[in-house]
UniProtKB/TrEMBL annotation:
Keyword terms, alphabetized: Cell membrane, Membrane, Transmembrane, Transmembrane helix, Transport
Domain of life the protein comes from: Bacteria
NCBIfam families: acr3
Organism: Shewanella vaxholmensis
Protein name (Swiss-Prot/TrEMBL): ACR3 family arsenite efflux transporter
InterPro entries from the UniProt entry: Arsenical-R_Acr3, BilAc:Na_symport/Acr3, Na+/solute_symporter_sf
PANTHER family xref list: ARSENICAL-RESISTANCE PROTEIN 3 (PTHR43057:SF1), ARSENITE EFFLUX TRANSPORTER (PTHR43057)
Gene3D superfamilies per the UniProt record, alphabetical: 1.20.1530.20
Family the entry assigns: Belongs to the arsenical resistance-3 (ACR3) (TC 2.A.59) family.
A Pfam family recorded for this sequence: SBF
Coiled-coil residue spans: none
Length: 337
């Protein structure tokens, strides 16, 4: 790893600080950028995520994707954790903290909204950022693509009924435009661009062409990540400053959920004797969330300034630092596998 990558957590920390400072100094600028959206998907964020993910898509060799069927245990593990475990543990933690532990700190209505926002995060497994975490742990890009794609397909059918079950609401309106547009922007388009690029390079019959391009693109991937962090924290800078206590209360169960799901998945991957290149991304998918979808649904159901919307935003705020720590742990324990 180069100097820039080795100290990525430092750059992310500085990006968080820069985002909060700039967001408070120039809130109008960030408000204008936040308004550039379609179907609750911010197009500027989408651009930076696209820049971040494209180099990872170039790594995907479709001729090797078919081999995923020869090692189905990793995919089965991901699906069990994401759809039979994670939503229910998130709901349980939300109830435990805001109905018992923090009952004297938050009024009942707001507590219920916080729980609702957490549930929406729990029912939406990660789609875009997991490609970053997979690359940082030297995960199998072909296997990661299949894991994400299968989760996206299942999410189309299960997100609404599972959310309705856990929220106790029967008339949840899923913003299909947000869901489908996010999948197209964060998975389909960069995948098509990556595959086309790889085929064009391979047509030259130069074995070094793909690695050389990836070396050139790698800094752009990190720049895309840091720019995304600056914007996300800039958008929420005023909230971070004005409601630090509530953000901390929400962050505690979310962090416990992320680490807990990772530990469970990682331990099961060890027991199943999966390779580290499959086990690490599988654990990352369950530990992170499709926050764009969760935020959009929370706003449509409860309103822009609701506790549910705030809870989904806190999910965005804690994800990057938490996931970087898990990347570090996964890399340090590679020898376990």
């Amino acid at each position: 790893m180069g100097f820039f990558e080795r100290y990525l957590s430092v750059w992310v920390g500085l990006s968080i600080l820069v985002g909060v400072v700039l967001g408070n100094l120039a809130p109008g600028v960030f408000a204008a950028v936040a308004a550039i959206e379609f179907a609750h998907v911010n197009l500027v964020i989408a651009l930076f995520i696209w820049v971040m993910i494209y180099p990872m898509m170039v790594q995907i060799d479709f001729s090797a994707v078919k081999n995923v069927g020869k090692a189905p245990k990793g995919l089965v593990l991901t699906l069990i954790i994401n759809w039979l475990v994670k939503p229910f543990t998130m709901a349980l933690l939300g109830w435990l903290f805001f109905k018992l532990v923090f009952v004297d700190l938050v009024d009942p209505q707001t507590a219920s909204e916080y729980i609702a926002g957490m549930i929406l995060l729990g029912v939406a497994p990660c789609t875009a950022m997991v490609f970053v975490w997979s690359q940082l742990t030297k995960g199998d890009p072909n296997y990661t693509l299949v894991q994400v794609s299968v989760n996206d397909i299942i999410m189309v059918f299960l997100f609404a009924p599972l959310s309705a079950l856990l929220l106790g609401v029967s008339d949840i309106q899923v913003p299909w435009e947000t869901l489908l547009l996010s999948v197209v922007l964060y998975v389909l388009l960069p995948l098509i661009a990556g595959v086309a690029t790889r085929k064009r390079l391979e047509a030259r019959h130069d074995a070094s062409a793909v690695p050389q391009l990836l070396t050139k693109l790698k800094p752009w991937s990190v720049i895309g990540l840091l720019a995304t962090v600056v914007l996300l924290f800039g958008f929420q800078a005023e909230t971070i400053i004005s409601q630090p206590q509530n953000i901390l209360l929400i962050a505690i169960p979310l962090i416990i959920q992320s680490y807990g799901i990772f530990i469970l998945t990682y331990w099961l991957a060890l027991k199943l004797k999966l390779t580290h290149a499959i086990a690490a991304p599988a654990s990352m998918i369950g530990s992170s969330n499709f926050f764009e979808l969760a935020v959009a649904v929370a706003i449509s159901l409860f309103g822009l300034h609701s506790g549910a919307a705030l809870a989904t935003v806190v999910g965005v705020l804690v994800e990057v630092p938490v996931m970087l720590s898990l990347v570090y742990f996964a890399n340090r324990t590679r020898h376990w596998f």
